[in-house]
Amino acid sequence: MPLDPIALESRTLWRVGGFAENELREAGTRYWWDNRPRASEQGVVFQLTLGGSIVLREGETESRVPFGHAALFAYGEDSAYGLTKDDREDYRCAWANLVGAGMREHWDALRARHGSVIVADEPVRRGFARLLALAAPRAHTDPLVMADAVHQFVLDLFRGLGKTLARSQPPVERALDELLRRPTQPSSLKEVAERFGCSREHLTRVFSQRVGMPPATWVNQQRVQKALTLLRETNLAIALVAEQSGFSSAHTLARQVRETTGLSPRAFRRRN
Length: 272
Hints:
Layout: H1 5-12, E1 15-25, E2 32-34, E3 44-51, E4 54-58, E5 61-65, E6 69-74, E7 79-82, E8 91-99, H2 103-114, E9 117-119, H3 122-135, H4 143-168, H5 171-181, H6 189-196, H7 200-211, H8 215-233, H9 238-245, H10 250-261, H11 265-271
Helix pairs in contact: 2-4, 3-4, 5-6, 5-7, 8-9, 8-10
Protein backbone atom coordinates (compact mmCIF):
# COMPACT_ATOMS: atom_id res chain seq x y z
CA MET A 1 0.00 0.00 0.00
CA PRO A 2 1.52 3.38 -0.99
CA LEU A 3 2.23 5.83 1.81
CA ASP A 4 0.04 8.89 2.14
CA PRO A 5 2.61 11.74 2.14
CA ILE A 6 0.22 14.21 3.78
CA ALA A 7 -0.68 11.82 6.61
CA LEU A 8 2.98 10.87 7.09
CA GLU A 9 4.00 14.52 7.27
CA SER A 10 1.22 15.24 9.75
CA ARG A 11 2.38 12.43 12.08
CA THR A 12 6.07 13.25 11.78
CA LEU A 13 6.66 17.00 11.60
CA TRP A 14 6.59 18.87 14.88
CA ARG A 15 3.70 21.30 15.10
CA VAL A 16 1.28 23.08 17.42
CA GLY A 17 -1.85 20.98 17.57
CA GLY A 18 -3.90 23.57 19.47
CA PHE A 19 -3.32 26.61 21.63
CA ALA A 20 -4.81 29.48 23.61
CA GLU A 21 -3.11 32.82 24.20
CA ASN A 22 -5.21 34.05 27.13
CA GLU A 23 -7.65 31.54 28.57
CA LEU A 24 -9.64 32.54 31.67
CA ARG A 25 -11.16 30.18 34.20
CA GLU A 26 -13.12 31.80 37.00
CA ALA A 27 -12.71 30.58 40.55
CA GLY A 28 -15.63 28.41 41.62
CA THR A 29 -16.21 27.02 38.13
CA ARG A 30 -15.28 23.44 37.24
CA TYR A 31 -11.86 23.25 35.65
CA TRP A 32 -10.21 19.87 36.01
CA TRP A 33 -8.66 17.68 33.30
CA ASP A 34 -7.58 14.06 33.70
CA ASN A 35 -4.92 13.20 31.12
CA ARG A 36 -5.24 9.41 31.38
CA PRO A 37 -8.15 8.96 28.91
CA ARG A 38 -6.74 11.47 26.44
CA ALA A 39 -5.07 9.91 23.38
CA SER A 40 -1.29 9.78 23.90
CA GLU A 41 -0.61 10.50 20.22
CA GLN A 42 -2.08 13.96 20.79
CA GLY A 43 1.26 14.94 22.26
CA VAL A 44 2.41 17.12 25.12
CA VAL A 45 1.40 20.46 26.63
CA PHE A 46 3.25 23.58 27.76
CA GLN A 47 0.86 25.60 29.94
CA LEU A 48 2.00 28.99 31.24
CA THR A 49 0.24 30.59 34.23
CA LEU A 50 -0.60 34.26 33.57
CA GLY A 51 -2.65 34.81 36.71
CA GLY A 52 -3.72 32.80 39.74
CA SER A 53 -2.53 29.22 39.98
CA ILE A 54 -3.58 25.62 39.40
CA VAL A 55 -2.62 22.22 40.78
CA LEU A 56 -0.74 19.67 38.68
CA ARG A 57 -1.24 16.15 40.01
CA GLU A 58 1.12 13.35 38.94
CA GLY A 59 0.18 10.05 40.51
CA GLU A 60 0.03 10.82 44.23
CA THR A 61 2.11 14.00 43.97
CA GLU A 62 0.60 17.48 43.74
CA SER A 63 2.44 20.65 42.72
CA ARG A 64 1.28 24.25 42.49
CA VAL A 65 1.78 26.08 39.19
CA PRO A 66 1.73 29.77 40.21
CA PHE A 67 2.15 32.95 38.19
CA GLY A 68 5.33 32.97 36.11
CA HIS A 69 5.58 29.18 36.08
CA ALA A 70 4.64 26.60 33.46
CA ALA A 71 3.31 23.07 33.72
CA LEU A 72 4.73 20.38 31.44
CA PHE A 73 2.50 17.34 30.96
CA ALA A 74 1.49 14.79 28.34
CA TYR A 75 -1.74 13.21 27.20
CA GLY A 76 -2.29 9.56 28.05
CA GLU A 77 -0.23 9.68 31.26
CA ASP A 78 -1.26 9.46 34.91
CA SER A 79 -1.58 13.19 35.52
CA ALA A 80 -4.34 15.76 35.98
CA TYR A 81 -4.54 19.51 36.44
CA GLY A 82 -6.90 22.35 37.22
CA LEU A 83 -8.59 24.33 39.99
CA THR A 84 -9.49 22.71 43.31
CA LYS A 85 -12.50 23.46 45.46
CA ASP A 86 -10.27 25.56 47.71
CA ASP A 87 -9.07 27.91 44.95
CA ARG A 88 -10.57 31.40 45.31
CA GLU A 89 -8.64 33.24 42.60
CA ASP A 90 -9.39 33.34 38.87
CA TYR A 91 -6.90 31.50 36.71
CA ARG A 92 -5.50 32.74 33.40
CA CYS A 93 -3.11 30.84 31.18
CA ALA A 94 -1.59 30.43 27.74
CA TRP A 95 -1.04 26.92 26.50
CA ALA A 96 0.08 24.97 23.47
CA ASN A 97 -0.29 21.33 22.54
CA LEU A 98 2.92 20.18 20.81
CA VAL A 99 2.77 17.18 18.50
CA GLY A 100 5.19 15.19 16.35
CA ALA A 101 7.42 12.15 16.15
CA GLY A 102 9.72 11.92 19.17
CA MET A 103 8.08 14.83 21.00
CA ARG A 104 7.07 12.74 24.01
CA GLU A 105 10.60 11.39 24.44
CA HIS A 106 11.99 14.94 24.46
CA TRP A 107 9.33 16.02 26.97
CA ASP A 108 10.05 13.07 29.26
CA ALA A 109 13.79 13.85 29.19
CA LEU A 110 13.10 17.51 29.96
CA ARG A 111 10.84 16.66 32.91
CA ALA A 112 13.18 13.99 34.25
CA ARG A 113 15.91 16.59 34.50
CA HIS A 114 13.99 19.71 35.55
CA GLY A 115 10.61 18.57 36.86
CA SER A 116 7.09 19.13 35.56
CA VAL A 117 6.71 22.66 36.95
CA ILE A 118 9.33 25.13 35.75
CA VAL A 119 10.05 28.82 36.17
CA ALA A 120 9.18 30.57 32.90
CA ASP A 121 11.62 33.46 32.75
CA GLU A 122 11.52 36.28 30.21
CA PRO A 123 13.34 34.39 27.40
CA VAL A 124 10.96 31.43 27.79
CA ARG A 125 7.90 33.69 27.70
CA ARG A 126 9.20 35.53 24.62
CA GLY A 127 9.94 32.27 22.84
CA PHE A 128 6.49 30.94 23.70
CA ALA A 129 4.82 34.11 22.42
CA ARG A 130 6.72 33.80 19.11
CA LEU A 131 5.62 30.18 18.82
CA LEU A 132 1.95 31.05 19.34
CA ALA A 133 2.18 33.87 16.81
CA LEU A 134 3.45 31.43 14.18
CA ALA A 135 0.75 28.91 15.10
CA ALA A 136 -2.09 31.36 14.54
CA PRO A 137 -4.11 30.41 11.41
CA ARG A 138 -3.80 33.97 10.10
CA ALA A 139 0.00 33.57 10.03
CA HIS A 140 -0.22 30.95 7.23
CA THR A 141 3.05 29.45 8.49
CA ASP A 142 4.66 26.85 6.27
CA PRO A 143 4.71 23.39 7.99
CA LEU A 144 8.51 23.16 7.76
CA VAL A 145 8.92 26.61 9.32
CA MET A 146 6.48 25.59 12.05
CA ALA A 147 8.36 22.36 12.71
CA ASP A 148 11.60 24.29 13.02
CA ALA A 149 10.01 26.78 15.43
CA VAL A 150 8.63 24.05 17.70
CA HIS A 151 11.97 22.26 17.65
CA GLN A 152 13.76 25.51 18.53
CA PHE A 153 11.37 26.21 21.40
CA VAL A 154 11.94 22.79 22.95
CA LEU A 155 15.72 23.03 22.55
CA ASP A 156 15.67 26.52 24.08
CA LEU A 157 13.86 25.05 27.09
CA PHE A 158 16.63 22.47 27.46
CA ARG A 159 19.33 25.14 27.15
CA GLY A 160 17.72 27.73 29.41
CA LEU A 161 16.77 25.32 32.17
CA GLY A 162 20.18 23.68 31.92
CA LYS A 163 21.94 27.01 32.47
CA THR A 164 19.70 27.80 35.44
CA LEU A 165 20.42 24.41 36.97
CA ALA A 166 24.15 24.79 36.38
CA ARG A 167 24.22 28.16 38.15
CA SER A 168 22.59 26.64 41.23
CA GLN A 169 24.86 23.58 41.44
CA PRO A 170 28.15 23.40 43.33
CA PRO A 171 31.25 22.84 41.16
CA VAL A 172 31.55 19.12 41.87
CA GLU A 173 27.92 18.52 40.86
CA ARG A 174 28.46 20.31 37.55
CA ALA A 175 31.61 18.26 36.92
CA LEU A 176 29.75 15.03 37.75
CA ASP A 177 26.93 16.03 35.43
CA GLU A 178 29.42 16.69 32.64
CA LEU A 179 30.90 13.20 33.01
CA LEU A 180 27.50 11.51 33.05
CA ARG A 181 26.23 13.41 30.03
CA ARG A 182 29.35 13.24 27.86
CA PRO A 183 31.47 10.20 28.76
CA THR A 184 33.10 10.09 25.30
CA GLN A 185 34.48 13.63 25.41
CA PRO A 186 38.28 13.60 24.95
CA SER A 187 39.06 14.98 28.41
CA SER A 188 40.79 13.43 31.38
CA LEU A 189 39.20 13.36 34.83
CA LYS A 190 41.71 15.98 35.97
CA GLU A 191 40.78 18.30 33.09
CA VAL A 192 37.05 18.01 33.86
CA ALA A 193 37.65 18.70 37.55
CA GLU A 194 39.81 21.75 36.81
CA ARG A 195 37.29 23.10 34.31
CA PHE A 196 34.59 23.21 36.98
CA GLY A 197 36.81 24.28 39.86
CA CYS A 198 36.96 21.17 42.02
CA SER A 199 39.68 18.66 42.83
CA ARG A 200 40.02 15.35 41.04
CA GLU A 201 39.97 13.55 44.39
CA HIS A 202 36.70 15.21 45.47
CA LEU A 203 35.09 14.49 42.10
CA THR A 204 36.18 10.84 42.31
CA ARG A 205 34.74 10.51 45.82
CA VAL A 206 31.36 12.08 44.97
CA PHE A 207 31.05 10.19 41.68
CA SER A 208 31.82 6.85 43.35
CA GLN A 209 29.21 7.49 46.04
CA ARG A 210 26.60 8.45 43.46
CA VAL A 211 27.24 5.86 40.74
CA GLY A 212 28.77 3.00 42.70
CA MET A 213 32.11 2.87 40.91
CA PRO A 214 35.06 5.19 40.23
CA PRO A 215 34.54 7.65 37.37
CA ALA A 216 37.46 6.25 35.36
CA THR A 217 35.89 2.77 35.44
CA TRP A 218 32.43 4.04 34.47
CA VAL A 219 33.71 6.31 31.69
CA ASN A 220 35.80 3.47 30.24
CA GLN A 221 32.76 1.17 30.24
CA GLN A 222 30.68 3.77 28.40
CA ARG A 223 33.41 4.31 25.82
CA VAL A 224 33.84 0.59 25.21
CA GLN A 225 30.09 0.14 24.72
CA LYS A 226 30.01 3.08 22.27
CA ALA A 227 32.92 1.55 20.37
CA LEU A 228 31.27 -1.88 20.20
CA THR A 229 28.07 -0.29 18.89
CA LEU A 230 30.00 1.56 16.18
CA LEU A 231 31.90 -1.60 15.25
CA ARG A 232 28.63 -3.54 14.93
CA GLU A 233 26.54 -0.93 13.18
CA THR A 234 28.95 1.05 10.98
CA ASN A 235 31.85 0.57 8.60
CA LEU A 236 33.88 3.38 10.13
CA ALA A 237 37.64 2.94 10.13
CA ILE A 238 39.02 1.73 13.46
CA ALA A 239 40.79 5.06 14.04
CA LEU A 240 37.48 6.92 13.63
CA VAL A 241 35.72 4.47 15.95
CA ALA A 242 38.39 5.21 18.55
CA GLU A 243 38.01 8.98 18.10
CA GLN A 244 34.21 8.95 18.29
CA SER A 245 34.26 6.68 21.35
CA GLY A 246 36.60 8.95 23.27
CA PHE A 247 39.76 6.79 23.13
CA SER A 248 43.09 8.49 22.59
CA SER A 249 44.20 6.08 19.84
CA ALA A 250 43.26 2.98 17.87
CA HIS A 251 45.81 1.08 19.96
CA THR A 252 44.01 2.02 23.20
CA LEU A 253 40.67 1.08 21.63
CA ALA A 254 42.03 -2.31 20.54
CA ARG A 255 43.35 -3.06 24.03
CA GLN A 256 40.03 -2.18 25.69
CA VAL A 257 37.94 -4.13 23.16
CA ARG A 258 40.20 -7.16 23.58
CA GLU A 259 39.94 -6.99 27.38
CA THR A 260 36.14 -6.82 27.14
CA THR A 261 35.41 -9.32 24.36
CA GLY A 262 38.60 -11.33 23.91
CA LEU A 263 38.67 -10.19 20.29
CA SER A 264 40.39 -7.48 18.30
CA PRO A 265 38.11 -4.74 16.92
CA ARG A 266 38.27 -6.25 13.40
CA ALA A 267 37.53 -9.76 14.69
CA PHE A 268 34.63 -8.43 16.75
CA ARG A 269 33.24 -6.65 13.68
CA ARG A 270 33.50 -9.79 11.55
CA ARG A 271 31.62 -11.86 14.13
CA ASN A 272 28.84 -9.28 14.49
